[in-house]
Amino acid sequence: MKIGVIGVAFSSFAVIATAQADDCQNASSQSALNECYGNAYKKSDAELNKIFKTLQRRADDADLKKKLVQSQRTWIAFRDAECDMQTIGGGSISGMAYSICLSDLTAERVNDLKKYLKCGEGDSNCPFPAASN
């Protein structure tokens, strides 16, 4: 049973790691890999914060701003809990795996929030007003 679980964990890890593999392929030690994937997460997080602040400025009423903040806080709690669960096994790669998880989920959130930056005039499926030119 443990072998099956380990196999699934490593195959899942391989799929997740593919996105950042190009950037970190030259790392020569576990420490270097941890640092590289940690930096990849920091880059994703910086982009997320930039988009979030743009959406806060674009929000045209207090209720929308409140809902945006509430949504983001809830999402962060989910992201952290999900990555904690995915890396519960520990081991020498757990730090790297945690950073990969954070980076991947943050990149997904960035893509989701970017959609709000492209709202068209009268788009009833988008709570944010269209960008003014």
What is the mean pLDDT? 85
Major sheet: none
How far do the termini sit from each other?
Answer: 59 Å
Give a count of the beta strands, DSSP E runs of length 2 or more: 0
Q: What is the domain total for the residues?
A: 1
Counting helices, strands and paired strands, the structural category is mainly alpha
Report low-confidence residues grouped into runs of 5 or more: 1-18
Oligomeric state of the chains present here: single chain
3D structure, described in words:
Helices cover 75% and strands 0% of the residues. It is an all-alpha fold and 133 residues long. It has one domain (2-22, 29-116): Substrate Binding Domain Of Dnak, Chain:A, Domain 2 (Up-down Bundle), CATH 1.20.1270.180. α1 (2-24) packs across α4, α2 (30-58) runs parallel beside α4 and α3 (62-86) packs antiparallel against α4. The termini are far apart. The model is unreliable at 1-18 (pLDDT under 50).
Question: What's a quick, concise take on this entry?
Answer:
This protein is mainly alpha-helical and 133 residues long.
Topology overview:
Layout: H1 2-24, H2 30-58, H3 62-86, H4 94-116
Helix pairs in contact: 1-4, 2-4, 3-4
From the structure above, extract its key features:
133 residues, mainly alpha, Substrate Binding Domain Of Dnak, Chain:A, Domain 2, 4 helices, elongated, disordered N terminus
